[in-house]
Amino acid sequence: MKSPITVAVTGAAGQIGYSLLFRIASGSMFGPDQPVALRLIEIEPALPTLNGVVMELDDCAFPLLHSITPTADLNEGFSGVNWALLVGSVPRKAGMERKDLLSINGKIFTGQGQAIEKNAASDVRVVVVGNPCNTNCLIAKSNAPGIPSERWFAMTRLDENRAKSQLAAKAGVHNTAVTNLTIWGNHSATQYPDFTNAKINGKSVTDVISDQAWLEGEFISTVQQRGAAIIKARGSSSAASAANAVVDTVKSLTTPTPAGDWTSVAVWSDGSYGVEKDLITSFPIRTTDGTSWEIVQDLPVNEFSQSRIDATINELKEERDAVKELGLI
Ligand code: NAX
């Protein structure tokens, strides 16, 4: 039996947590022969709810679930973790300015970054899901300078999956036929789902879908606004699909990417594609050996794509400047 991988999940009593924990414990994230130890982090008032989730995890009798540690203590929660999945954050409420949101969440992610640096395993990798996830990731990373830059990620995989599904539906093919889909930039309504480099059954999307106006208009806005559409339909925000995207993200970072393809995740910018260094930006990413990854280089970026990428990068710069002004990074 392999030794367990230790995974911390913050916001474990929340909606996404309720889907995610059972997927991790069942083996969906790390494979059918890899035991996992869960460290479930919540704020104090949510511990009774978290206790109910722990009872349900117990009741599944998962063969791969080695142990469960529910806690509101960050040092205990991040102790020895190989993966830190930062899901918990405070949602934007009516009347709240973006700056207020960045300030409230900033305090959460400074503390979590510091606690991860102090307590986690030496190989820790961090995936930030809680919004605004790119900038929350930047805050946590800035507060854990001892952890190498390439170990920090923010999730744009749900956007990628949404984009693939929209393109597949339009082309009348199964979603597995859609490859090479990049989400550029911020996980927000400015993100750019890049159809120009995407493929359907190995052919350029623009050769398969001739409706350019749909690609440049409705396709992009549907992906950008999908979260809001789910809230309208369901009465609460995406949860199972978000949890699924977390599983996909970690799987993609721990297994080699299929030849010729790539995936989307926000990583620390090294200046590729002219994106300012140090911004946590979604790029096309390939994993080679299951531990290291690279940004896919030299993809063509036409004028339309460039203007979209510029818009989302500008938003990331504004968020970075705002948290800098607040002294969070
Ligand atoms: P919920 O409100 O259901 O759950 C959040 C949980 O986080 C709550 O249980 C809360 O007690 C906990 N929490 C708050 N502060 C905490 C702290 N300091 N430490 C530990 N736990 C804390 O939200 P849920 O629907 O689960 O969504 C979680 C986050 O994911 C939100 O920020 C949401 O905006 C974000 N999302 C990000 C997505 C992405 O693609 N990156 C997509 C889905 C989702 O919208």
UniProtKB/TrEMBL annotation:
Top-rank lineage group of the source organism: Bacteria
UniProt cross-references to Gene3D superfamilies, sorted A to Z: Lactate dehydrogenase/glycoside hydrolase, family 4, C-terminal, NAD(P)-binding Rossmann-like Domain
Reactions that this protein is recorded to catalyse: (S)-malate + NAD(+) = oxaloacetate + NADH + H(+)
Stretches assigned to the Lactate/malate dehydrogenase C-terminal domain: 156-325
Residues annotated to bind substrate: R92, R98, N131, R162
Keyword Zinc appears in the UniProt entry: no
GO molecular function: L-malate dehydrogenase (NAD+) activity
Binding site for NAD(+): G11, A12, A13, G14, Q15, I16, G17, N105, Q112, V129, G130, N131
Keywords: NAD, Oxidoreductase, Tricarboxylic acid cycle
EC number(s) stated in the UniProt entry for this protein: 1.1.1.37
Residues annotated as catalytic: H187 (proton acceptor)
Keyword flag Oxidoreductase: yes
Residue ranges constituting the Lactate/malate dehydrogenase N-terminal domain according to the UniProt record: 7-148
Family recorded in the similarity comment: Belongs to the LDH/MDH superfamily. MDH type 2 family.
NCBIfam families according to UniProt: MalateDH-SF1, PRK05442.1
The protein's name: Malate dehydrogenase
UniProt gene name: mdh
